Amino acid sequence: MRAWVAGAAAGAMTALWGVAALAQTPDFIGQPTPGGIDLQPGVTSLRNDAAFFHNIILMPIITAITLLVLGLLIWICIRYNKKANPVPAKFTHNTFIEVVWTVVPVLILMFIAIFSFKLLFAYNDMPKPDLTVKATGYQWYWGYEYPDQKISEYVSNVLPEDEAKKKSVPYLLAATEPLVVPAGKVVQVLVTGGDVIHSFTVPSFGVIADAIPGRVNNVWFKVDRPGIYYGNCRQLCGIQHSAMPIEVHVLAQADFDAWVVSKGGSPKGSAPVIPPAAAPAIEAATAAVPAAATIAPVADGPATATTPPSPAPAPALAAK
Ligand SMILES: [Cu+2]
Fold it and tell me: CB count, 10 Å around CB of 57?
C-alpha cells in the first residue's frame, strides 16, 4: 500500500513538473507569459529564494500530502465498505497511530519553518539602501516621489490601449510614466495609500506590499539586469483596479542619473552629477532600453516632475 501511494505521488509530481517545464519555454522576463502556469522568472535573489521555497519545498510536500490523503480515502472506501468488510472492528483507539499523526505533521511544519523563517528574515534584513522611492497608490494610478533626489511626486497612469498597441507594449501593464531605478543598487520603496488600500507588487522582483492610507510599508529590491519589469496593484481597490500598472525601468547608474536630471532632480551617490547640458546622455539613456520612449518626455521634464498628483481621472476612465 505504502509503495503504491509513494509511486502515485512520484508519478503525479513528475507529470506536473513536466507540464510546467513545457509551459516555461520561452518565458518573458518581467511580465506574464501567455499560457504560462509557472511563476514568472525572478531577477532578484529574494525572488529566487521565494520561488525555491514554493517550488522545491512547499509544492512537493503539498502534493505528497494531498495524494496520501486521497490514497487513504480510496483505500478505505474499497477495503472497508459494507460488502468487503461486513463485520467492522470494535476498537476506537490506537496509541501508536495517534502519536504518529500528531508528531509527523509537527515535524513537517518544523521543516517548513526552517526555510520560511530564513526567507522572512532575508526580506526583513534590508541592506543600507542606495535609493529611496515613495510609491503612493491612488484611485486609480500611482504617484512616485524621489525625496533624496528632490523629484516631487509625478503621476503614473495606465497607458491607453491604442497607445500601448502602437508602442507594442502590454496593455494594462504599461504605464504613462515608469518608476526608474538604477541597476545593481539597493532600492527601498516606501509604500502608502492616498485614498483606499492598494498594493505595490512586482512579481519578478518578489516584492509585494500593501499601500495603506496613513501607514508606510517598505520593501526593497536589488536588480542587476537592466530592463523593463511590470507589476500592478494587487488589492481590489475599486472599479479601475485593473488599470493600475507598475512599470519599472532598471537603468545603468549613469542613465539613471541622466533621467534624474531630466526630471529636474539632483542625482546623488557614486556617479558624478551630470551637467544640465547633457541632452545626448539623456537620449542615450532613453534609448538604452527597448520601448524607452515612455521614460521621459525630456523636453518638459522639470514641468512634469513638479506636477502634483491631480485627482484627474486616468485616461482609460476618461475615455469611457
Ligand atoms: Cu489599487
Answer: 16
Q: Which three cell numbers stand for residue 128?
A: 543600507
Distance 159 CA to ligand 1 centre (A): 16
Q: Are 231 and 185 in contact (CB under 8 A)?
A: no
pTM of the complete model? 0.71
User: How would DSSP label each residue in 42-111?
Assistant: P-SHHHHHHHHIIIIIIHHHHHHHHHHHHHHHHHHHHHTSTTT-SS-------HHHHHHHHHHHHHHHHH
Domains of the chain: 2-124 (1.10.287.90), 131-308 (2.60.40.420)
**How far does the centroid of ligand 1 lie from the alpha carbon of residue 232, in Å?**
8
Q: What does 148-194 look like in DSSP terms, one character per residue?
A: TTTEEEEEEPBPPHHHHHHHT--TTT-BSS-EEEETTSEEEEEEEES
191: closest CA among 135, 232, 230?
A: 135
- Ligand 1 centroid–CA 196 distance in Å is 8
- Report the separation in Å between the CA atom of 304 and the middle of ligand 1, taken as the mean of its atom positions: 23
pLDDT tens track for 19-69: 554 544 467 888 998 888 888 899 999 999 999 999 999 999 999 999 999
120 CA distance to ligand 1 middle (Å): 25
CA of 302 to the centre of ligand 1 (A): 27
Q: Is the pLDDT of residue 291 over 60?
A: no
Question: What are 160-211's pLDDT values in tens digits?
Answer: 999 999 999 999 999 999 999 999 999 999 999 999 999 999 999 999 999 9
